Amino acid sequence: MKYLPRNYDLFDTMFDSFLPTNSNNMMRTDVHEKDGYYDLDIELPGYKKEDIAMEISDGYLNIKATRTNSDEEKDERGNLIRQERFYGSISRSFYVGDNIKAEDIKAKYENGILNINLPSREQKRIETSQKVELL
After folding, report:
1. Where does 17-78 have alpha helices with state H?
2. Is 112 exposed, middle or buried (0-12, 13-18, 19+ CB in 10 A)?
3. How far is CA 29 from the centre of its chain?
4. What distance in Å separates the CA atoms of residue 96 and residue 38, rounded to the nearest whole number?
5. DSSP of 17-73, one letter per residue?
6. What does the alpha-carbon distance between residue 43 and residue 114 come to, in Å, rounded to a whole number?
């Protein structure tokens, strides 16, 4: 017999099978490097172009997709008999370095796939060495 921990709360897990898990909400991404550029293909099925926002901040490319749907059915007299709503958003960040600017990035959204093309510039390496003194 399996015993549950004392702080186990049934309500924390009751709806787990009905709610989407993180793996379903993750932006599945393929990354390819070719000729000094990265190509990212990100799956975003069901989203529209206007649902997607991207920004560069502190060396990270941040992508966020937000979707809102509302379905309702009314009877012949106009009374509401069913209404369902869905609100959701997913986001993902990619470290691209401080050398990449917004104008370096080309992006298009087509058939549920967000394609992003950006340079794969190498980070500047510090070639100098410094001696550490022992106390």
Report:
1. 22-25
2. exposed
3. 9
4. 10
5. TTSPPHHHHS--EEEEEETTEEEEEEE-TT--GGGEEEEEETTEEEEEEEEEEEEEE
6. 6
Nearest CA to 40 among 32, 49, 50, 52?
Answer: 32
CA-CA distance, 113 to 18, in Å (whole number)? 26
Q: What is the pLDDT along the chain (135 residues), one digit of tens a residue?
A: 445 455 544 444 444 444 444 445 578 999 999 888 999 999 998 899 999 999 998 889 999 999 887 777 888 888 877 777 778 889 999 998 888 888 889 999 999 999 999 998 654 544 555 556 654
